[in-house]
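Example record

The entry below shows one chain as it appears in the dataset: sequence first, then structure tokens.
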Amino acid sequence: EDLLMHETAVAQGLIEVILGEAGKQGGRPIRAKMSCGMLNAVNDEVVRFAFEAIAEGTVCEGMTLEIEHKPLQARCRTCGGTFAVTLSDARCPRCTGTDFELLPDAPLVLDEIEFEKG
């Protein structure tokens, strides 16, 4: 699987959604924020590069793209607490238990689009 293809498809998808919204709102989009989980992770630089390339010549040109990586969440089987898993310390912060189940990874989503005022 060519990594570049994945990031390009992500950028393409984002642009399509933003263009659709821009058409409805009639404004110029200036900033977008996307997020993804650890397993659905993207390479920020590659996505931004592809995003800029695809945005060229559209109303999306010159937009800022923010990318947030959401940590993998787990549920502790001992105390029931949910917490962000870090590979360096995979223990429940509440009870220090190590018996937990991983929750579904955060999907890749476009969280917000900011339009130019006026």
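Notes for this example: The helical segments are 3-25, 44-55. Residues 17 and 23 are 10 Å apart (CA to CA).
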